[in-house]
Amino acid sequence: MSVRYKSIDSIRGFALLGILLVNMPDFYSPHLYMSQEQPLVRDVASFFIDVVARASFYPLFAMLFGFGFMIMFENARKQGHSFSSMYRRRLVGLFLLGCIHAFLIWYGDILISYALCGAVLWFFKDASVKRLLTSGLSIWLFPVFIVASLLIVSGDMTEETGLYQQIIKESFETYASGTLGMIIHQRLQDWLYLNNVYSAPFLFVSIFPFFLFGAAAAKAKVVQKVENYVLFLKGTLLLSACFFLLGKLLPYIVGGNAVMRYVHDSVGGPAGSLFYGSFLLLILRKKAAQKIMSPFAAMGKLSLTNYLGQSVLSTLLFYSYGAGLYGKVSTLEGIGITFFIFWVQMIVSNWWMKTHLFGPIEWLLRSFIRRQKQPWKRAEIEQN
User: Fold this and answer.
1) What radius of gyration, in Å, describes the C-alpha atoms of the chain?
2) What are the pLDDT digits (tens) for 88-109?
C-alpha cells in the first residue's frame, strides 16, 4: 500500500477547487470558443479567474500525479513487488475513466491526457532528481521559446474575430435545449477541438514536465524532509511569483494578442502552479495551517471521485437534460456556484472518509489495478 501524505492530499484538494473554478465557465457557456473571440476578459470576476486560476491548477495536479507515481514505484521496489503490470493497469483504468468522462459527461476531460503522458513517465522511473528537473524545465521552456518566437516572427500579433460565431450559437442551442443525441454530438465536436493531432504536442508539454517536477520532489523526499528544503522552496516561491504575475498580467498591459495569450497560458499558468505548490508546502509545516487545510485532505483523498463528480453535478445543473441553466449564469454567479459545489463536496468527503478507506471511483480503480475486490470500509480492516 502506498504511503499517504496529508499535506499532499490537502494540496490535491486545493487544486480541485482551482480546477472547478476554471472549468465552471465552460460548464455553463461555450467559453471554449468565446475566449478565442474575446481574448481579454471584460469584468472583474473573469479577471479574477483568469489571473488567479487559469492554466495554473492542471499543472499542479500533474505534479501531484508525478509525485504519486514515484512514491508508488519506490515503495514497490523496496517491497520487491512488480510495479510495471500494476502501473499499466492504472493507466488503462484512467484512460477508460477518461473516455467515459469525455464522451458521456463533459468534453473537458484531462484523464485521457494523463494516462497517455503517464506512459512516457515510465521511462523516467530510474532518473535522478537532477535529470528529472532538467528534463522538466527543458520540455516546458524550450517549446515556449520556440513557439513565442515563431508567433513574433510570423507577425501574428492580432486576433481575428468572427470565426467562432456559428459554433458558439450552436453550443448555446444544443446544451441549453438540445436532445441527448445532439449534446453527445456537440460534446464530441468540442473534445476534438481540444484534442487533435495539432494540439497534442501542446497538451504534452503542458502536462508532462510537471509530472517530472512532481516525481523529482518525491525522489528528493521534499515532503518528508521539508525543513531541509525551506530555502529551496522560498527561492522557488519568489521566482515563480515573478513569472506568475508577469505572465498573467502582460496581456492586460501589452494587449491580448496571440503571443501574449500564449505566454499567459504557457508561462504564467505553470509558474502559478509552482507558486501555489511551494507556498502550500511551506505553510503546511505549521500546525495552524495543517488544521485549516485539514478539510481539504479528505477532498484530495477522493480526488478522482470529486473531479468526476464536479462534472456530473455541473452538467446536470446547466444542460438541457438537467436544470437547463446553460447560458443563463453570469461569471460572478458561476464563482458562487463553484464554491457551493466545492463546499458540499468537502462536507460529503469528510463524512465519507470517517467510515471508508477510499472514494467510490478510487476503490473501483484500485480493485481494477489489483485484479480483485478491495476492502473500502474501515470496519472491514478492523475485523481482519
Assistant:
1) 21
2) 999 999 999 999 999 999 999 9
Residue 379 has pLDDT above 80, yes or no: no
Question: Over 60: is that where the pLDDT of 87 sits?
Answer: yes
Segment 20-33 mean pLDDT: 94
| Closest residue by Cα to residue 87 from 68, 64, 62 | 68
Which cell is 180 given? 441527448
What pLDDT, on the 0 to 100 scale, is given for residue 21? 97
Helix (H), strand (E), coil (C) string for the chain: CCCCCHHHHHHHHHHHHHHHHHHHHHHHCCHHHHHHHCCCCCCHHHHHHHHHCCCCHHHHHHHHHHHHHHHHHHHHHHHCCCCHHHHHHHHHHHHHHHHHHHHHCCCCCCHHHHHHHHHHHHHHCCCCHHHHHHHHHHHHHHHHHHHHHHHHHHCCCCCCCCCCHHHHHHHHHHHHHCCHHHHHHHHHHHHHHHCCCCCHHHHHHHHHHHHHHHHHHHHCCCCCCHHHHHHHHHHHHHHHHHHHHHHHHHHHHHCCCHHHHHHHHHHHHHHHHHHHHHHHHHHCCCHHHHHHHHHHHHHHHCHHHHHHHHHHHHHHHHCCCCCCCCCCCCHHHHHHHHHHHHHHHHHHHHHHCCCECCCHHHHHHHHHHHCCCCCCEHHHHHHC
Give the residue-averaged pLDDT of 67-90: 89
pTM of the model: 0.93
Average pLDDT, the chain: 91
State residue 151 phi and psi, 5-degree precision. Answer: -65, -40
Q: What is the dihedral of CA 352, 358, 363, 366, to 10 degrees?
A: 170
pLDDT at res. 2: 38
CA distance 294 to 292: 6
pLDDT in tens, 270-316: 999 999 999 999 999 999 999 999 999 999 999 999 999 999 999 99
Q: Is the pLDDT of residue 261 over 90?
A: no
* Phi, psi (degrees; rounded to nearest 5) at 176: -80, -35
